[in-house]
Amino acid sequence: MSNQQTIARSTNAFPWLIMILMSSVTFVGILSELMPSGVMPQINSDLNISELQGGNLVGYYAIASAIFAIPLVSVTLKFNRKILILILLAGFAASNIVVGILANYTIIIILRIIGGICAGVMWPMIAAYGMRLVNHEHHGKAIAVIMAGNTLGISAGMPSITFFGNRYGWRAAFIALGIMIIAIAVTCAVALPSTPGEKLTRSSSPFSLFKIPSVLTVLLLTLLGVMAHYGAYVYLTRLVDEIELLGGIESALLLFGSGSLISVLLAIKYTDKHLRLLTTVMFALVVISMLVLLLFGRKTIVAHVAFFLWGLSFGPLVTLMQTAVSRQVESGKDVATSVQSSAFNLSIMIATSAAGILLGSYSPISLPYFATVLAIPGMIISIFAKKALG
C-alpha cells in the first residue's frame, strides 16, 4: 500500500493506535525535561554541584526549547515527518543515556541543551503531524490524545521514574528512560505513516503569524494561562507546607494528577466542538480553585477539593492552546504551533521568576493571589474571543 493510500485511510476513521503511539512520544518528552527534578539531591551530591547548578539541568533545557523551537521548526518544515520524529527520538535517547554515564557537569549541561533543542522541535511538530493524519473535525481530538502523554508523564510518569531513581540511582533512571525511548523509536519506525514535509511560504512564516490578531490573542491566553498555573505549581511544595495539607505533597500531587487525567479525557471528547467553552471553563476553574485555597486552605477536605479542581483546569492547557493556534492557519501548522510552544516555555520562565520574587517578599499564600489575578482576564478574554477560539 502506498504512503498516500495509508494517509488517506487514516483520515477516514480516527487512528487511535497511531495517536496513542504519538502520545508515548510526548510522555517520554516531558519525562526527559523534568527527570532531574525527581532525583535532584542525588545528582547534586554525586556531581558535587550546588542546588542552583542542579536546577540549571532543567532551566537550560527549557531555555533551549524556547529559543530554538521557531527557527528549527521552520528549517525542518520540509523534512519527512516520520524521519524527523525518529531523529528527535534518537536525540532524546542519546542525551539521556550519555548523561547517565558521564560525570562532567559541563558536558551534561550541553547534553541537556541538546535534549531541549529536540523538545523544542518535537512539541509543535508532533501535534501538526497528528493533525495531518485525521479529518479537520478531529484536529482537536488528535492534539488532545497526543498531548495526553504530557499530562500522564507529569501525573504518573514522574512519580514512577523518581521512585526508580531513588531505588536504583539517578544514573540508572536516565539510562532506563533512554532505553524506553529507543523502544518507542523502533515502534514508530514500524508503525507511523510516512508523511512528506511542507514548503515554508511567506504566509506560513513566523513573522506573518504575528500579524494575525487571533494568533496574538491565543498567545496572550497562553501567557496568562501558563503563568497562572506554573507560578503556583513550580512552588507547590511551599504552598502545601504553608496550608499544612493533610497527606502533604503526595496527597496534593495525587489529587492534582487525578483531576488532570479526567480533564484530558474530557478534552479528547469535546475540544473540537467546544474549544471556547472549555478554555473559558479552564480559566474559571483556576480562579475557583485558588479562591478555595485562599478562603478554606487550612480545612482539610475543602483544600483537597481545591487541588483536584486545579488539576481539572491544568490538564487540557496545552491541548486547548495548540488547537486554537492551529486553527488560525491552513498551512504551516508546525510553525504556528512552534510559535505557541515558544510562548509557552517563555511564559514558564517568566512565571517562575515572578513567583520567586513574590516568595522572597511574601508568604507562599501569595501564589494563589498571583494565579487568580492572571486567570480572571484570561477568562474574560476567552468569553469574547469568538474568532481565536471559534
Number of helices: 17
CATH class of the largest domain: Mainly Alpha
Radius of gyration: 20 Å
User: Whole-number average pLDDT?
Assistant: 88
Instruction: Specify the helix fraction band.
Output: over 70%
Q: Could you give the count of β-strands?
A: 0
Largest sheet: none
Apparent shape? globular
The H-level CATH homologous superfamily of the largest domain, spelled out, is: MFS general substrate transporter like domains
Order of helices and strands: HHHHHHHHHHHHHHHHH
Low-confidence stretches: 1-11
Structural class: mainly alpha
Indicate the CATH topology of the largest domain. Answer: Growth Hormone, Chain: A
**Percentage beta strand:** under 5%
Supply the CATH architecture of the largest domain. Up-down Bundle
Question: Termini, distance in Å?
Answer: 37 Å
Whole-number tally of structural domains: 2
Characterization of the model:
The protein has two domains: 3-191, MFS general substrate transporter like domains (Growth Hormone, Chain: A, Up-down Bundle), CATH 1.20.1250.20; 203-384, MFS general substrate transporter like domains (Growth Hormone, Chain: A, Up-down Bundle). Helix 7 (139-168) runs antiparallel to helix 12 and helix 13 runs antiparallel to helix 17. It is built from 17 helices and no strands. Helix content is 81%, strand content 0%. The longest helix has 30 residues, at 139-168. It is an all-alpha fold and 390 residues long. The two termini are 37 Å apart. 51% of the residues are buried. The radius of gyration is 20 Å and the shape is globular. It is found in: Cell membrane. One of its GO terms (cellular component) is plasma membrane. It is a multi-pass membrane protein. GO terms for molecular function: transmembrane transporter activity. InterPro entries: MFS, MFS_dom, MFS_Efflux_Transporters, MFS_trans_sf.
